[in-house]
Prior knowledge:
The chain is an alpha+beta fold. It has one domain: Outer membrane efflux proteins (OEP). Helices cover about 65% and strands about 15% of the residues. It has helices at about 5-15, 15-25, 35-45, 45-65, 115-180, 185-220, 245-255, 255-275, 325-395, 400-435, 440-445; strands at about 75-85, 95-110, 285-295, 305-320. It has a 4-stranded antiparallel β-sheet, with no helix packed on it. Strand 1 (about 75-85) and strand 2 form a beta hairpin. The two termini are about 45 Å apart.
Amino acid sequence: MTLPPFLPALRLSMRCVSAALALAALAPLARAQSLAALYEAARGFDASYQSARLQYEASLARAEQAKAGILPTAGVSAGASRVGVETTTTPAISTSYNTQNAALSASQPLYRPANWATYAQGARQVELARAQLEAASQDLIVRTSQAYFDVLAAQDTLAFVRAQKEAVAEQLAAARRNFEVGTATITDTREAQARYDLVVAQEIAAENDLRVRRIALDQLVGLTEAQPRPLAVPVGLPAVLPAEVGTWVRQSELLHPAIRQAQGNADIAELEIKKAEAGHKPTLDATASYSVTKNPASSAQAGISSRANSANVGLVLNVPLFAGFATQNRIRETLWLRDKALSDLEGTRRAVAQNVRTAYFGVQSGQGQVRALEAAELSSQSALEANRLGYQVGVRINIDVLNAQSQLFQTKRDLAQARYNVLLGGLRLRQASGTLTAEDLQPINGLLAP
């Protein structure tokens, strides 16, 4: 039996789908960047990350200020004055002279519980700042990866739509020729025309979506027309290790930045209680001073210069007696705030554990979806071939071939998206457990086209 004239063209189009996708991805590959390279570019450009980094530096400086309360202080003062003297005695005296003075003073806290609590809080503030920066870094890794895979997915969608458009155009042309020679009805032509018009609309939407995704990636990494490297074919997705959700949860309890921040806030609140309780305690400081007073042309009786030197070393004890119940109420306030911080810590632990479990099972589900879609791709390819053969022998109509063809392209697109979701889900799992670092991008780089 003679084959319908559009079937060879369809076979050619389907064989060229992979080649079309490869060409779409590899055409700009000479200037393409890996995921790790784009992340490094984003670190130097992204405003949110830069803000977090600068906040970290400011937090370090603020924490260092807490040392001032336990370190000695010293100061120098100097002055000069003109003294005028007039008397009503007999004989009357009217004179004036200069006075100069300078003093050096120093003080060292010996017992100040509030200052030591503030110093300990400064150390906790450093840990807080470090956890906040780590959280910002992990967030940037995920945002960069999301934008990266969004562009790849948009490129794949456009390539699939264009390949489908080419195949449908060939089928439309064949249906028109068959109608002209009387071997097909006008229905085949109209069905192919409707499918072609639909694919054209899908192509316009896919082009715009790709344009938007590329703009978002460029804005994130600070490059013009950044080009992500596509995944190499065949794609071998890495397994999730360790393959036990409890291990991920236990890691998160020790390493997650949000838990460390909540723990730091609880520690700071505990130290704030000690600061409040210090309001009832005495303070003890060691002091020392040395001063010089000089009169170049001394007294009213004689123009004789004089100089007086004095030095003293001592202890200053300050014992609080009553502060209008301010200290007692301050202690009550800090106790409630400590309990609130502990409650926030527990809530953070529960939320992080839930997020870890959700991310873990999401990756597991995604891997299962990839395997199912890989099987569906083979089944869709077989279904298309069967529909072609059925059309050839007259048991299938034109719309059956069109539907089988659309199903195959949709499956291919879903499979590509599912693979991206698994890779991104692995990064989100590490972010949820608090273990995500830039080194985790290297396995993904190994899956990219060279």
